[in-house]
């Protein structure tokens, strides 16, 4: 067991929304959460209505919903304005016959149009498919093809990455940009918006109807479409209340991009379901710009990731002194293990505990968290959300006692649990192979006080800067390069990014290893798949270790890299 476990930082805010943790757990009831929504009385469900229109109906239409800024724009939108704009986009979609259950993707950098589009798609009952702006041709095509997307919202700059001739089901592209030439299937976003009425009928759906399809990586196969339903709003709302601790008047900033689940569940749904002002900052990471964002918007609640906090720590304490960060009340983290050192630094430099939270694309919302009212153990992910039962179980489903490492598992179901993997029932069932449990793929242990401690992944999934990368997707791209015979990809530990992608490659006949070839291969992945999936390190090998069935043994590559014993080699080829 970790010797870190003894360190405790006392509760920050006993008067937070959750209040006493044990009492909240004992008294918890999801029906009490349901009562917060208008559909508890009306029976009419739509997440977009609850996130936006409900606040307007309650007389809060003039409150600021969105504060957007990037290098060229600085804009503010009230709930009433968001309501009107998302109605307009819903009308644009309807005029093209797009309706309930259709998959409509958004592929663009963070912008007000992105947020308006997501809300409009949900308002017509269609399913949102967010795509990260760094995705290149192959990544975009795989996702649009698998989901059978009928429409896409994108920008002129990103359009060349959409291979429309290979996507027969993709009927419409709504293009955000100036001076757009309408062509077949290409629709001028701004022009249509201008003509569309600002009132729209909301498509009332069932709680179990589709909301969003997030593609994420596993260790094998192509990315999986993780499908969530409107019912997830229960947990988005509740975690927004008790984990983000959102209160009337809060200004919330989630630094994640909506291409990833944190950027939708917490960059869109949780803050707006709670009526908070949502800050969105476009552009790249830079410590000065980030502190400026907090200062300028008077951010009160800030949700980011360990890599970002480590980079801010690397930028030092002096730069912090140049900004007024006194608006901050609550700071949180997600995506990868949060180092105790970073938590201590946060206490010292920001004067705030950084609250780690654990969850996954598949879980839809936070499950294991640190709460403002609970003592914090640096290095621990915290305790299960009230209403959630988490446990460490062995491979047969036996619950293990405190201190024993095993599978981190969650009792099924919970409101924001994924409802299916698109087109892949066997993959979905793998997560539920032990009756009554969801198997996360993470390993952890629970201590005597009920705190959970992350240990690692069971599979080969790579976590670089909090982004999940499937080694198979990268390997598949690598072998498309003419010089590459075989490729094996692993996560190599890295002090800032958690892990970086390292590729072991054997070359085809006629190619000689060189630094130039390494750079060219890395660029090939960057341009074909996405920048975050490109290997930062490449090592050429004569031969890669393989099983007799021809599978590359990443475990052996990892052992090579870390100078560890390679373990059981009984299945190796030679
Ligand atoms: C929300 C999100 C999920 C995987 C998960 C785990 C890792 C997330 C963590 C954490 C340690 C935490 N992870 N939170 N590891 N401590 N607090 O990140 O979703 O992109 O699907 O990644 O990320 O390994 O299984 P997703």
UniProtKB/TrEMBL annotation:
Q: Where is the AMP-binding enzyme C-terminal domain?
A: 473-551
Give the signal peptide, or none.
Answer: none
Indicate whether Transit peptide appears among the record's keywords.
no
Q: Which GO terms describe its molecular function?
A: acetate-CoA ligase activity
Task: Say if the entry is tagged with keyword ATP-binding.
Answer: yes
- Write down the superkingdom of origin: Bacteria
Q: Which UniProt keywords apply?
A: Acetylation, ATP-binding, Ligase, Nucleotide-binding
Q: What is its EC number?
A: 6.2.1.1
AMP-dependent synthetase/ligase domain sequence ranges: 55-419
Q: Which InterPro entries match?
A: AMP-bd_C (IPR025110), AMP-bd_C_sf (IPR045851), AMP-binding_CS (IPR020845), AMP-dep_synth/lig_dom (IPR000873), ANL_N_sf (IPR042099)
Q: Which SUPFAM superfamilies match?
A: Acetyl-CoA synthetase-like
Q: Name one Pfam family in it.
A: AMP-binding_C
Indicate the enzyme's highest-level EC class: ligase
Kindly give the PANTHER family that the UniProt entry links to this protein.
ACETYL-COENZYME A SYNTHETASE, ACETYL-COENZYME A SYNTHETASE 1
Name of the protein in question: acetate--CoA ligase
């Amino acid at each position: 067991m970790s010797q870190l476990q003894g360190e405790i930082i006392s509760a920050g805010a006993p008067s937070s929304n959750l209040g006493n943790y044990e009492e909240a757990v004992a008294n918890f009831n999801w029906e009490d959460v349901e009562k917060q929504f208008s559909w508890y009385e009306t029976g009419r469900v739509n997440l977009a209505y609850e996130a936006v229109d409900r606040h307007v109906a309650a007389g809060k239409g003039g409150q600021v919903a969105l504060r957007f800024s990037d290098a060229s724009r600085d804009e503010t939108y009230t709930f009433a304005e968001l309501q009107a704009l998302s109605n307009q986009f819903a009308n644009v979609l309807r005029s093209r016959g797009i309706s309930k259950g259709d998959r409509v993707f958004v592929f663009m950098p963070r912008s007000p149009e992105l947020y308006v589009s997501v809300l409009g798609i949900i308002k017509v009952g269609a399913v949102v498919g967010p795509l990260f702006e760094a995705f290149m041709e192959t990544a975009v095509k795989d996702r649009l093809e698998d989901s059978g997307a009928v429409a896409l919202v994108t920008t002129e700059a990103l359009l060349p990455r959409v291979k429309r001739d290979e996507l027969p089901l993709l009927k419409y592209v709504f293009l955000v940009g100036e001076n757009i030439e309408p062509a077949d299937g290409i629709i001028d976003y701004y022009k249509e918006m201008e003509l569309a009425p600002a009132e729209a009928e909301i498509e009332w759906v069932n709680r179990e109807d589709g909301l969003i399809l997030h593609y994420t990586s596993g260790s094998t196969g192509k990315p999986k479409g993780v499908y969530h339903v409107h019912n997830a709003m229960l947990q988005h709302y509740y975690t927004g209340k008790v984990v983000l601790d959102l209160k009337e008047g809060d200004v919330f900033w989630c630094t994640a991009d909506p291409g990833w689940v944190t950027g939708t569940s917490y960059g869109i749904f949780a803050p707006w379901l709670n009526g908070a002002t949502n800050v969105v900052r476009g552009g790249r990471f830079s410590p000065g710009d980030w502190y400026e964002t907090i200062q300028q918007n008077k951010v009160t609640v800030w949700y980011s990731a360990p890599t970002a906090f480590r980079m801010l720590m690397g930028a030092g304490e002096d730069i912090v002194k140049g900004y007024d960060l006194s608006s901050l009340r609550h700071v949180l983290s997600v995506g990868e293990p949060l180092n105790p050192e970073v938590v201590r630094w946060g206490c010292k430099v920001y004067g705030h505990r950084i609250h780690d939270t654990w969850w996954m694309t598949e879980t839809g919302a936070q499950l294991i968290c640190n709460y403002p009212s609970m003592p914090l153990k640096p290095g621990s992910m915290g305790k299960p959300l009230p209403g959630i039962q988490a446990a460490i179980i062995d491979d047969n489903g036996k619950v293990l006692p405190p201190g024993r490492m095993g599978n981190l598992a969650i009792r099924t179901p919970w409101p924001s649990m994924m409802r299916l993997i698109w087109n892949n029932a066997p993959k979905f069932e793998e997560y539920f192979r032990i009756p009554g449990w969801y198997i996360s793929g993470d390993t952890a242990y629970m201590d005597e006080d009920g705190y959970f401690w992350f240990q690692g992944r069971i599979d080969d999934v790579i976590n670089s800067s909090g982004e999940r990368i499937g080694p198979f997707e990268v390997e598949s791209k690598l072998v498309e390069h003419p010089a590459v015979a075989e490729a094996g990809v692993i996560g190599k530990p890295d002090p800032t990014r958690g892990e970086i992608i390292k590729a072991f490659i054997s070359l085809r006949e006629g190619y000689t290893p060189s630094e130039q070839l390494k750079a060219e291969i890395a660029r090939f992945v960057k341009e074909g798949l996405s920048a975050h999936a490109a290997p930062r390190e490449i090592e050429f090998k004569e031969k890669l270790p393989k099983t007799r069935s021809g599978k590359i043994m990443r475990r052996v590559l990892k052992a090579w890299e870390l100078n560890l014993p390679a373990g059981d080699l009984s299945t190796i080829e030679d």
